[in-house]
Amino acid sequence: MKTKEKLSVYGLTDMGRQRTNNEDAFVAKQMDINTVLAVVIDGVGGYEGGEVAAEIARTEIPKYLQNFQNGERLELLKQAVVSANNAIFDRRQVDTARPSMSCVLTSAIVDKQRKVIDMVHVGDTRLYQFHHGELRKLSHDHSLIGYREEMGDLTEEQAMHHPQRNVISRDVGSAKHEVADRDFLEAAEFPLLPNSIFLLCSDGLTDLITSKQIIEVLKTGKNLTSKAKSLIAAANEAGGKDNITIVLVEYNAEEKEKTVNQTEHEQVREEGGVAPVKESDKGKEDKINVETKDMKKLYLVGTIAVVIVFLLCGVCLFYTYRVNQKLVNLQSQFENHLQYSDLQTDGVFEEVEVSLDTDSLLK
């Protein structure tokens, strides 16, 4: 008898305790029997502006995926986010009261038939995977502080309280974009692991509660509704300084022993993810180490480039010094040669003059 798979989704948003409006939005939608669409959106641009941008993204992404269904899921999701981006940008051009509206978002299509989760992400909203007591951050924050946290320069606690925590380097809506544009979309595909939970959230959650606090909620046997409410309650208890939005996706299925090919597939797909935080790591520092393979390569290449530049400069300086020394020596030799030649020439003239005088006397 085949074990029945179950894919569940639940979303919840809260204004928080210090804001007077909610600029967050979300999508938690069953697309068909096998797939779920989950999106968390955080508006940017001040009062009402961010709210309008978030609403445009909330309606545009599902609409695009509904209208265009033929093609690879990940490519379609990238196109849907670009469509939302350009719709927000077009609105900015005519809505003079909200000239700086934009948003950040994390979107995912969870496919239990293909056993994958496709992610498209821009900004500092986040996607996590919780599996076997470990919390793994799959997205990357597009901000300097987020990057420093991922590289290990800042701990999770330090990043949470940094004054520049919310300064982002990418957003949705501030400029026209195409799917192929560099430094805009972060897109990746990850394996859908049995009995796992995916958490999409705005920074209103992760700026206030740590990864270990998130684990404490997700590991309980409560349903998704209770877990989402508990996470929001924890953020509000910590101050609730921002809007808080959460989408939870849970996939339950029988776990089978992995083949070598499946393990290799997961390792390849998870290269973009970060090191997990384990439930048992109680004595370890509260941080998620996100030194990805690409970041390590970038750091290594940068270091090698700097060393090469210094070596080339040193070689150039050395050869410049040698050439100058040779020129000085040559000049000295040349001057000595000229002085010696002058002496020889003077002697010849004197001999000639003496010779002429002697001949005249003989005559």
Describe the 3D structure:
- The protein has 363 residues and is an alpha+beta fold.
- It has helices spanning 49-67, 73-94, 144-151, 156-160, 203-206, 211-218, 224-237, 260-269, 293-362, and strands at 6-14, 24-30, 35-44, 102-111, 116-122, 126-131, 134-137, 186-191, 196-201, 244-252, 277-278.
- α1 crosses α2 (73-94) and α6 (211-218) runs antiparallel to α7.
- The protein starts with 5 loop residues before the first strand and ends with a helix.
- Mean pLDDT is 82; it is low at 259-272, 279-293 and 340-363.
How are the SSEs placed, and which strands pair?
Elements: E1 6-14, E2 24-30, E3 35-44, H1 49-67, H2 73-94, E4 102-111, E5 116-122, E6 126-131, E7 134-137, H3 144-151, H4 156-160, E8 186-191, E9 196-201, H5 203-206, H6 211-218, H7 224-237, E10 244-252, H8 260-269, E11 277-278, H9 293-362
Antiparallel strand pairs: 1-10, 2-3, 3-4, 4-5, 5-8, 6-7, 6-9, 7-11, 9-10
Helix pairs in contact: 1-2, 6-7
